[in-house]
Write a structure and sequence with these properties.
Helix content: 40-55%
Strand order of the largest sheet: 2-1-3-4
Number of helices: 10
Structural class: alpha/beta
Order of helices and strands: HEHEHEHEHHEHEHEHEH
Length: 295
Amino acid sequence: MVVGMLAFAATACGSAGSGGDGKPTVLTTFTVLADIARNVAGDHLTVESITKAGAEIHGYEPTPGDIKKASKADLILDNGLNLEAWFAQFLSDVKVDHVVVSEGVAPINIGEDAYQGKPNPHAWMSPLNVQIYVDNMVRAFGELAPEHAADFKANGEKYKAELGAVQTELVNKLSALPANQRALVTCEGAFSYLARDAGLTEKYIWAVNAEQQATPQQIASAIDFVKRNQVPAVFCESTVSDAPMQRVVEASGAAYGGVLYVDSLSEADGPVPTYLDLIRHDAKTIGAALTGQRS
């Protein structure tokens, strides 16, 4: 499970941690993973994210500061499933053990565009999948700090129970939509796992944000889908421009349903400071817009 980058990595980074508090330091590639990891780690580990709140993860370009921070970490967590296009090069410059937290998730493949046949990387958009992420973190943290393994296990089980409750809330909120409203149209194809869980048909302008310049053909395809299915509302993600989707709105007559969160949490005082807040926000926003019940 844990991939050793070099034999000396563990001793070079040590277990003294880099946070100044003596705790081992875990570095994640983006804020969503950091929040999940903190729920498992409790007070025993220092957890930080490479990217900041609001940052786009797919095409992120690590800074020298990121590499310096990572070189002092004891463990790095990445999502995998081709999410972090920059991560392989990043690891070549940083000799630290890492864990792929999506290991064990059954991927949904992307169905079109240049990424056709490749796994959709947004597996965390299903709380059920995040339960697998948690199990992987529990194991990895137990190896990193075995004296706290029992606490990591207990924290993980508690958080998995919360994830199960959010999963039920998500499905109940979206499963009541009428047939003609059971379509989720977004800028990025980031909602395959959420759509599967809630029984929604997914349509997007582009597959992955690494190529977010919408082509006229992609926009036309989205417009045609919205018109044919009389989709009442469409959405876009917080980390990209909604300009292409606004063209769909203008041409189709659908309402703009609001901003959805996927690749990044908000700041602490924002709408989605935690992963559980993110899923609840998205389910509420989708359900309200598709039923015309927006406040």
